[in-house]
Amino acid sequence: MKPLDIKAEHCTAGQWLDAWAENCAKLQVRASSYKTCRGFIENHIKPALSKIPLEKLTAMKILLPESQCH
Question: Are 11 and 50 in contact (CB under 8 A)?
């Protein structure tokens, strides 16, 4: 498997998640597991984090997305 060629300064967390799912996870798990993984990404992770630039993503932003801080 080749590494993902994504530059952090030009990528959001959502774009990285999509690339990771398609180029890494999809190749390593069963189709049903991939479908479940994509569901978690689309329904739970991306709504909270998808627009954050990857270079600015921190553990605190993952633990306390802005949508939950208000």
Answer: no
CA distances 38 to 6, 44, 70, Å, are 19, 10, 27
Report the 10 Å Cβ neighbour count for 10. Answer: 10
| Region class of 50: left (phi > 0), else alpha (psi between -120 and 50), else beta | alpha
* pLDDT tens figures, 3-37: 556 666 679 999 999 999 999 999 999 999 999 99
Write the CB contacts of 49 (distance below 8 Å, at least 6 apart in sequence).
Answer: 13, 14, 57, 61, 62, 65
